[in-house]
Design a protein that fits this description.
Distance between the termini: 36 Å
CATH class: Alpha Beta
Shape: globular
Structural class: alpha+beta
Number of strands: 6
Helix content: 25-40%
CATH architecture: 2-Layer Sandwich
Number of helices: 3
CATH topology: Alpha-Beta Plaits
Strand order of the largest sheet: 2-3-1-4
């Protein structure tokens, strides 16, 4: 659910309205959640979008959204008899951004998000099975992990086990 902007938009100059929309539309941040055990409670999307496929961040984001939507649609058709399963609220989103240390040959946009897990409308299909099926339809540069699981899926295969980092003292 998107946050509502508390200001009356008819009385604000355009510049202030744009600033308000930028602040009010941000996802709620969970500090360092992506690197903690808390991240395991949420669905996770990680992407390394090749720069040759997305010259600017907005194109990278568009390609990611379209790929995720298409893959979700195909997984729903395959496993859920076409009953659409809702995606949860995005709680944290980082990127797309360009890491400062990469070379032009391996230039990628980095993206990671955590979403609140929503119940699937697929009967007895597990979240792991749904996410694995969804990952079969994603490009190699997108990996997904369902909430409550440590398995990361990439193109239908188990890519890795998620190992949360522990706080350093």
């Amino acid at each position: 659910m998107a946050a509502r902007c508390p200001f009356n938009s008819t009385r604000l100059p355009t510049l202030l309205l744009l600033a308000c929309l930028a602040v009010c539309s941000r996802a709620h941040a969970l500090p360092e959640a992506a690197a903690s055990t808390e991240a395991l409670y949420y669905d996770q999307v990680s992407a390394r979008i090749p720069r040759d496929q997305a010259p600017i961040a907005s194109v990278a984001m568009a390609r990611l959204i379209i790929a995720l939507h298409s893959a979700r649609k195909l997984a729903v058709q395959s496993l859920c008899n076409g009953n659409w399963s809702p995606a949860g609220e995005t709680l944290q989103r980082i990127g797309p951004y360009l890491p400062p240390t990469q070379t032009s040959e391996d230039s990628v946009w980095i993206y990671q998000s955590l979403q609140r897990a929503q119940p699937l409308t697929c009967g007895q299909v597990s979240r792991a099975r749904f996410f694995r099926e969804m990952s079969r339809h994603l490009p190699a540069w997108i990996s997904i992990r369902p909430a409550g699981q440590t398995t990361v899926f990439n193109q239908g295969a188990v890519q890795a086990r998620h190992r949360p980092a522990f706080a350093r003292r």
